[in-house]
Every structure is written in C-alpha cells, then in structure tokens.
Amino acid sequence: MTSHAIRQVRVTPIAFRDPPLLNAAGIHEPWALRAILEIETASGLVGINETYGDQSMLDVLAKAAPALQGLSPWDLNTMETRVQAMVKVPVQTAGHTSEFLGEQISLAPGTHVSKNAAKAISAFEVAMLDLQGQLANAPVVDLLGGAAREAVPFSAYLFFKYAEHIDQAGTDYPADPFGEGLAPEQMVAQARRMIAQYGFKSIKLKAGALPPEQEVAALLALAKAFPGAPLRIDPNANWSVATSLNVVEQLRGVLEYYEDPAPGLQGMAEVAQQCEVPLATNMVVTDYKEFAENVRLGCPVRIVLSDHHYWGGLRTTQQLSRLCQTFDMGLSMHSNSHLGISLIAMTHLAASVPHLSYACDTHYPWQDEEIVQGGRLTFENGSLRVPRGPGLGVRIDPESLARLHDNYLRCGIRARDDLGQMRKYDPTFTGKQPRY
Ligand code: MG
Predict the structure, then answer these.
(1) Which of 7, 19, 100, 412 is the most exposed place for a label (fewest CB within 10 A)?
(2) What is the mean pLDDT of the chain?
(3) Quick check: helix, strand or coil at residue 265?
(4) Is residue 241 a contact partner of residue 274, using CB atoms and an 8 Å limit?
(5) Hey, which residues are catalytic here?
C-alpha cells in the first residue's frame, strides 16, 4: 500500500432550497438532494465530488465504496472493473411497472437503476481525478488533455413556476426572487433577470408543463425580446408527435434545437422526418446502446445532451464526444439541480472537449446555497472560467457541508417526487405522458 492509497470514502447527503419549478412530471419540491463525496488517501489528501442524493443512490454508493479500498488514485480502470462487479445491473423488465419510477426516469435518466454502475463509477472517477490533480499539481482539465477553451458557456435555463411553494409557510426561507413565471411577459422578465445577473447568451425554456399554446406564446415573446439569441424548448417528451410538429411549425425560424418533444426514440424519429430543426435529447440517447440504436435509425437525434453523472464520468464523455463527431452529431450538456462541485466538474470536462457545439445547461441560477469555499461561483458573460488550481480547483467549506447535511436530516425528503408534490396543488394530476 503506497502512502497515497485510498483508505476511506465518505458520502454525505445534503439538501438545499429549490424553487417551485414546473415540468412534465410535476413540480420541484422545496428541497433538492445531492450527495457529497470525500475520498481520503493514507497520506491525508482528500478528493471531492458531488452526485445524486436520493436514497437509492446512497445505497449504490455504500455498496460500491469498498471497491476503492487500497487503490491508487491513478487506478481508474481497476476502480471501474471492481465497481461493475459489485453493482450488478438489474435485468430490465419489459415496460416499467412502477408509474412513479417511469415519471422519474423520463425527467432524470440518472435515477434509472440501469445506470447504477455508471453513476457510481462517475462519482468515484471525478473524486479520483481531483486526487490525481493534487498529486500532479495540475487542474483536472489538463489531466483530460488540456483546455480547448478557457471558459465554458452556459445557457439561461427558464422554468414556468409558481411564486411560492404550496407549503412555503412551513419552511424557514422566503420565496425566491424570480416570482411567478406563467405568462409570456413574466417569462421575459425571468430571462432578463437571469441574463442581467449571469450574462447568458443562449436561452432554454423548460416546457411540457402548461398547454402548448401558452408555451409557444412564451417562446415567441422571448424571441422578440432577445433577437438573435439561440433559443431551445424542452417539453420532456410530454407532447405527441402531432403536437410536436404543430409546435415546431409555430416556432419556425426561432429554435436553435428542439429538445425531446415526443416520447421514445421512435417518436423522435417520426418528428425528425417532418422537422427541419435538429432534435436534441437527454432522454432517448442516454448510454452507448441507445447511441447505437439512434445511429441504426439514421440519427433522428442530432444532438446529445450528455451528463457525466450518468454517462459514467468525464473520460467516457470525452469518448462520447468523438462518437458524436464521427456521426456528425452535436454535443452539449444536460443538468439537474446541483451545486458548485458538479458545475466545476462539468466546466473542466466541457473545456477539454473541442467538439462542444452549444452552451451547456445548468440549474445553478435556481439555487442560492453553496458547498464550496468562497461561496457562489461567478459567471462572466454567461461563461465559467476553468479553474487553474490543482484537481477540481475548489474545496469543500466544512461549515456549509454541515449546514446542508442538517437540512437533509430535517427536510424529510429521501427521493425526488415531482409528481407527488404536484398532487398537493392538484389532486387530480396523473403525470400521464404525453399529456398534450
Ligand atoms: Mg432535457
């Protein structure tokens, strides 16, 4: 055992405030969950990372953590082999019997059990790369081949939303500063506020929550208010093929890409046949098997919105980028509610990928908490500069970690449930998809 051998893996679940953001599956709960990893070597170095914090993920991490015992931080391949052996992928049953599981998968592929090994490998890989960077005195982006760009562009990620949570009265925090976001002029105001603060150039509208004509009206208002800004709309497969085609016709000349309008790769293929706007996805091309199926169908999906948290890490996402290039497909990044460690890992990765075609998604503006020392990360002109310090270039603030872990203990949420939360507003809400 060398002095830098891994001797301990700490996983700390945390919860942070999350606004009442609407989506196809329902609405965000008042607290979002994440897990913070600390991998410590015998020599006392600590590599860090951030990943999903649902109970199922905590169970997977607990099961896989012994794989790291005694490993060198450089032994990523051994780590992968061991984790794959320890986290068996469950046999896929035909169709999803659990309605709840189905809802969650469609919104956040990272919650699917078939991704368990890839998620655990990613969680450990980033923390081990952070250790490697400390040992080599090099930023993670250099370990990945060096920076193809000094700063990574992100997009303004707009949500239809209520002004307050239904149970805000029972919480110890005030309503978020964005206010209600339902009418087109409210969505323009939301965009103006976010862009004024962060400088984003591209705009993404999360849709699939309100009747499509209302969502179209909002997007057209944004196109008018921000002429020339690249615009995207993402209804999370909550529209039929007919509705998808109807919507894109009304948005003619406005969209940069069209994200997951209709359900399934087959639905996307049907839309693609009659639609000039390139289709993007984080729902139907979520692993290499699905990538191959998309290629077999002649690439109806033109842009993969990758996410290192469930694709299996930073290095495999670099390989995905090569594949996208090979098949003349674009690449960008998907996001879930997250804090600064995830954002910085995305930034190192995106900076290392020459073939990054679009500004990446991030939920960061919707959060007001932070876990890293120095507090909230600062964007310049909508981009985040790649840190040049060793490893990820950010460290955990112990007081913040303790506070956010305390939130977790008190909040009562152990698995994300947008559907259940929506039923508090509307008991008749079924979450059936596609809804329109
Ligand atoms: Mg999406």
Answers:
(1) 412
(2) 94
(3) helix
(4) no
(5) 206, 334
